[in-house]
């Protein structure tokens, strides 16, 4: 990526990026932009900024983990702790779906460092009260 000469200096620290996209992608971006009351360019910049800087995702997952740990510490394994565990599972799944498995792993590693705690497992309890399966993200 190199800045175009006519736009250099027009906005401090920014460069123009051109890329090809399918019509379906552009229609999807336009639809998202309309819902958000943004321009297509603003929508693309926002999505790429959030993808490149996962601070918001780290904050959300950190908050869920703190809630889960607090609930378990205060009351033990409860229905509410299972609900929070489901939120964690959904947040991790959505992150992997939108940004990819490696980006999710990067976010989880940042959460581990920030909280100095392991990532709780999200395997649901079965009716017998036991958890069966393996969550490769936990730990």
How does this model look, in words?
By secondary structure, the chain is mainly α. Among the domains are: 19-53; 54-115, no CATH class. Helices cover 60% and strands 0% of the residues. It contains 5 helices and no strands. It has helices spanning 23-36, 40-52, 55-75, 79-99, 101-115. Helix 3 runs antiparallel to helix 4 and helix 3 (55-75) packs across helix 5 (101-115). The chain is elongated and about 55 Å long. The chain starts with 22 loop residues before the first helix and ends in a 24-residue tail after the last helix. The relative contact order is 0.09. Mean pLDDT is 88; it is low at 1-9.
- Which structural category fits the helices and strands? mainly alpha
Largest sheet: none
Strand content: under 5%
Helix tally equals 5
Parts with pLDDT < 50 across at least 5 consecutive residues: 1-9
Q: Any idea what the radius of gyration is?
A: 20 Å
Layout of secondary structure:
Blueprint (H helix, E strand, L loop, with lengths): L22 H14 L3 H13 L2 H21 L3 H21 L1 H15 L24
Summary tags:
single chain, 139 residues, mainly alpha, 5 helices, 60% helix, elongated, disordered N terminus
Would you summarize the structure shown here?
This protein has 139 residues and is mainly alpha-helical.
């Amino acid at each position: 990526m190199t800045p175009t000469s006519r736009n250099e200096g027009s906005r401090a620290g920014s460069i123009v990026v051109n890329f090809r996209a399918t019509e379906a992608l552009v229609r999807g971006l336009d639809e998202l932009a309309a819902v958000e009351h943004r321009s297509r360019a603003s929508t693309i910049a926002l999505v790429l900024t959030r993808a490149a800087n996962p601070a918001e995702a780290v904050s959300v997952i950190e908050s869920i983990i703190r809630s889960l740990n607090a609930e378990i510490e205060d009351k033990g394994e409860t229905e509410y702790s299972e609900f929070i565990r489901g939120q964690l599972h959904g947040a991790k799944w959505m992150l992997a779906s939108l940004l990819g498995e490696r980006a999710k792993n990067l976010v989880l590693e940042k959460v581990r460092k920030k909280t100095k705690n392991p990532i709780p497992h999200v395997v649901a309890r079965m009716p017998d009260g036991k958890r069966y399966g393996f969550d490769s993200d936990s730990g």
